[in-house]
Design brief:
Layout lengths: L1 H63 L5 E3 L5 E4 L1 H7 L3 H4 L4 H4 L2 H6 L7
Antiparallel strand pairs: 1-2
Length: 119
């Protein structure tokens, strides 16, 4: 009878230790998972700052360029132009943004090198 009680206590002790270990493991896992949003938000904030800095450098380079630079969509609609590009065609920037690249090219240029846009 004593031997049976020892085995039962031993089993209870082992199960208790195993339960504590699993509870600790689950707690650590939960803590790890709960910290992830803060880490991700920090990474997003850092990347956003880098992207803003990169965009500012890009805009400065484009605006200060002596050549006309145009940004257009896949249909040839002008989305943006730098100051040199605006001066090149003598339109206001608002008027230029309503144009298509085909409107800006001469007939001779279009005959030599046709502009092709995907449908």
């Amino acid at each position: 009878m004593i031997s049976n009680k020892k085995n039962a206590l031993y089993g209870l002790f082992v199960m208790g230790i195993l339960g504590l270990f699993l509870a600790g493991l689950a707690g650590f896992f939960t803590y790890f998972i709960m910290k992830q949003p803060k880490k991700l938000q920090k990474m997003v904030n850092e990347k956003t700052l880098l992207l803003k800095e990169s965009e500012q450098k890009f805009r400065t380079l484009i605006e200060q360029a002596s050549d006309g630079i145009f940004l257009a969509d896949f249909k040839g609609n002008v989305l943006d132009a730098n100051l040199a590009g605006v001066k090149m065609f003598r339109y206001s920037k608002e008027e230029l943004l309503e144009k298509n690249l085909r409107d800006l090219a001469t007939k001779e240029d279009l005959n030599k090198t046709p502009i092709r846009f995907p449908n």
